[in-house]
Design a protein that fits this description.
Blueprint (H helix, E strand, L loop, with lengths): L3 H11 L4 E5 L2 E4 H17 L7 E5 L4 H13 L2 E4 L6 H11 L3 E4 L4 H5 L9 E3 L8 E2 L24 E6 L9 E5 H14 L7 E4 L6 H12 L3 E4 L5 H10 L4 E4 L1 H9 L13 E4 L6 H11 L3 E6 L8 E3 L8 E5 L5 E4 L16 E6 L13 H7 E2 L2 E10 L5 E6 L4 E3 L2 E3 L1 H9 L4 E11 L3 E10 L5 H10 L10 E4 L13 H5 L21
Parallel strand pairs: 1-11, 3-4, 3-5, 5-6, 6-7, 10-11, 12-13, 13-14, 25-26
Antiparallel strand pairs: 1-2, 8-9, 14-15, 15-16, 16-21, 17-18, 18-20, 19-20, 20-21, 22-23, 24-25
Length: 524
């Protein structure tokens, strides 16, 4: 298999004059970007980084971040991207755990780098006069004039590590996920095939490049000689301007960002007709948002992609509106199963319709081989050649997968296992509900009681929402026992609902309404 450096060269050779990268006033063709990438790769080697060394990058989605990612692939240097909002202790942990030989950062992340003792022990490349730097980023991109520099191909092979992604830890430190060039290329090829991308597609580069969705968009565009338009920090109005200005053809976002696009006042007056393909991942999309997006964009393809950093694709559904909530079937590089919730073996398969844990075959081309320096995590998640995802779900009679949440998110009320996703899907269809999250809150009688946290589009009260649930096909014991109206639903930087914050009371109540508890609490 080709390594990623040679993969990029394919587009340079096929379409040297095609526009490849845009970031504000910066616009580069594939030939221009290739020269810059090779210059940065050479600059990293001059900084002292060698093949196999790790480079920690704490940047927003800017042209320098995308360029560093590709430079690492050509130089054989392992890119370790980190959330630019990372706290000092997170920077310290990742520098130490990855044994990073240098760090690249910008002013927005400078304080965290400065407060990291480990970061002070390595060369620090700063953008935009970032304080505390030992070398400016511009020093890496000085044009090399020695013969052979620009004609260099790559210093890596397909079996070498391309990058290490750190998963967001909910109860402890993040886990490093090392991925080889061949894993990354297979994931990008699958992304192209499963989203039916054609040569010359154009996408919005807004999903962070420290997250698997952002990396996949970057690599997929190179595979099809496409355009990657950087969006440094999410802003719905700016995103809409980019769609119109650059005639973007495909979007791959988390549901939260789609919600924001539709909610922005500029959406109705923006020409989005160039967008023909929608894809989403990272979190379930409510039935209500699915319907609104389908009506607003009328896409020729609407893909629900379900996966993770560890195994890029678990499953896909290329017609997300046909069976709302369905994550479809295994991707082209994947095998999956649903096993019983307490299963220790991949052979303890759940019945059709029975909720269990979703597991994925580690022999798939996109699958990682184990966590970085975490034998404890490997022992928990890797069993007999299968990755135990920690996600819950079930297969219906057609063989389609439904993801119901996380094992840790499962609400156990009065001895019943209750998935938050089922309830959220019902409530999302109410016209007054803008966003909804459901969580289990401690209760002396029931163990946990089901609580729905509602961000309203227009006024609605608890009684109306309870009546809505009663009229749906939601069984009685799953009905929320409390409705709490909030100003916003807390989410991670990539749009995942943070139920633990809701359970801990870390939210701002909507001042226009108070929580009202339905009086009837019988169970079926």
């Amino acid at each position: 298999m080709l390594d990623l450096g040679r993969t990029f060269l394919q587009s340079v050779e096929r379409s040297p004059n095609a526009l490849a990268l845009v970031d504000g006033d910066v616009q580069l063709t594939y030939a221009q970007w290739h020269r810059m990438i090779l210059n940065v790769a050479h600059g990293l080697r001059e900084l002292g980084l060698q093949r196999g060394d790790r480079l920690l990058v704490v940047l927003q989605n800017r042209w320098e971040m995308a360029t560093l990612h590709w430079a690492g692939q050509f130089a054989g240097i392992v890119i370790v991207p980190l959330n630019w909002r990372a706290k000092p202790e997170e920077v310290d942990y990742c520098v130490t755990d990855a044994e990073a030989k240098a760090i690249v950062y910008e002013p927005v992340s400078a304080d965290s780098v400065a407060q990291s003792a480990a970061a002070q022990k390595v060369p620090r490349v700063g953008l935009d006069d970032a304080p505390g730097r030992t070398i400016p980023f511009d020093a890496l991109i000085v044009e090399r004039t020695r013969s052979g520099d620009v004609s260099d191909t790559t210093h890596a092979t397909a079996d070498e590590i391309s990058l290490i992604l750190y998963t967001s830890g909910t109860t402890g430190k993040g886990k490093g996920v090392p991925r080889r060039h061949r894993h990354e290329r297979a994931g990008a090829l699958a992304h192209v095939a499963q989203n039916l991308y054609r040569r010359g597609e154009r996408t919005l580069g807004v999903m962070p490049l420290y997250h698997t969705m952002g990396v996949r968009s970057l690599l997929a565009m190179a595979l099809v000689d496409g355009l990657f338009v950087c969006v440094r920090r999410w802003n719905a109005k700016l995103a809409l301007e980019s769609i119109s200005k650059h005639a973007l053809t495909c979007l791959y976002l988390v549901p939260t960002l789609y919600h924001d696009l539709l909610a922005d006042s500029a959406f109705a007056s923006t020409d989005t007709s160039s967008v023909r393909k929608l894809g989403f991942a990272g979190a379930p999309m409510s039935d209500g948002l699915l319907k609104r997006l389908s009506a607003a964009f009328e896409p020729e393809l609407f893909v629900n992609h379900y996966g993770s950093s560890e195994v890029y694709t678990f499953s896909i559904d290329q017609d997300a509106t046909k069976k709302p909530g369905s994550a479809g079937r295994a991707g082209i590089n994947t095998r999956l199963r649903v096993v019983k919730l307490d299963a220790l073996s991949p052979d303890e398969i759940a019945e059709v319709g029975e909720e269990g844990q979703i597991i994925v075959d580690l022999l798939g081309d996109e699958a990682f081989e184990g966590y970085w320096n975490r034998p404890d995590a490997n022992a928990k998640c890797l069993r007999e050649g299968w990755y135990f995802t920690g996600d819950t779900g079930y297969l219906d009679r057609d063989g389609d997968l439904y993801v119901t949440g996380r094992v840790d998110d499962m609400i156990i009320s009065g001895g019943e296992n209750i998935s938050p996703v089922d309830i959220e899907s019902v409530l999302s269809l109410h016209p007054a509900v803008d966003e909804v999250a459901v969580a289990g809150v401690k209760d002396e009688r029931w163990g946990q009681r089901v609580v729905a946290f509602i961000k309203r589009r227009e006024y609605v009260d608890s009684d109306s929402l309870d009546a809505w649930c009663r009229q749906s096909d939601l069984v009685n014991f799953k009905r929320p026992r409390d409705y709490v109206f909030v100003d916003d639903i807390p989410k991670s930087p990539v749009g995942k609902i943070l139920r633990r914050k809701l359970q801990a009371g870390e939210y701002t109540p909507d001042s226009k309404a108070q929580a009202v508890q339905p009086t009837e609490t019988t169970k079926e």
